[in-house]
Amino acid sequence: MTWSDWKWQLQNRITTLADLEREITLTDEERESFVKAFEQFQFAVTPYYLARLDKNNPDCPVRKQILPRSGELIRKPNETEDPLAEEIHMPVKGVTHRYPDRAIWYISHVCAVYCRFCTRKRKVSDPEETPNRMEWEKALDYFRTKTEIREVILSGGDPLTLSDSSLEYLLGALKNIPHLNQVRIHTRHPVTMPMRLTESLNSVFSKHFPIYMVTHFNHPNEISDETKFYVMRMIKEGHVSVFNQSVLLAGINDDANILSELNYKLISIGVKPYYLHQCDEVFGSSDFVVPIEKGIEIYRRLRGYHSGITIPNYVKDLTGGGGKVLLSPEYLQKKTEKGYLFQNYLGDEYEVGH
User: What is the pTM of this model?
Assistant: First the structure.
């Protein structure tokens, strides 16, 4: 197996401090934070994605996404292990049914790279959280009986860590449910391990057209020549519609020029910018959070100044399971002592911190 083999990339991930220090020079803070953070959340990075970072620059925007920092060890009062309340809306293991017409299906605990701001830090990398084959059938039965569900979103971990044959089976089973209108796949493999987008996987996708994929680029430095090759080939051969959701991250992409460059690059390879997320209030995320006032100002500098097809929706997924709200002045109800009051899609009011 070689560099361009996705299984080789997974098998050769850097997962320990000793292995990491053989590759890059860490700062004292990074080293100390790694040891403490590793007690609560695993570390992993593919050789491919490690090659995307500046090994000598602690401020590298790719590096900041994967290396623990001291802020990750701080727990703020507003932060929680399950900010989107996925567990309390879980009728069957692995299935979160929060919205009336769609459900998320958590089918893998493995990621090629573990992001430090991950919403599912509580369960990602824990094999006990992954549904087994018998539980797959229970989930499929649930989808068959709930006729109000129009869409199933395959998520994880990363669903593309499953084999082609497993994905073939799951997509086939879902596509055979009459009331399902579409299937969506949420994956970061196009960013962290694009060689996973093999010709055989494209063949699977092509059989089950239409497939909608949402990936997760946060910075233009994450788009390499390999990214362009594999993503564009998948779009052409697999007939996959690809969207991107970024997270607004302090010191990484909280700049209109950086986001503009990212979004134009995405459009050039056939990926539509879909969401720009305010960082979720998951424990240890405070160092990544951009103040909403700054986020709205950045968004103002994008909309109207750049092509409309490059502009994502700036949103906040409300802590507590209230769903997404648009973070723009017309949806803002009022400013409060703690932050801002927004309405969700049901008209319920939620307070969002600064």
Answer: 0.91
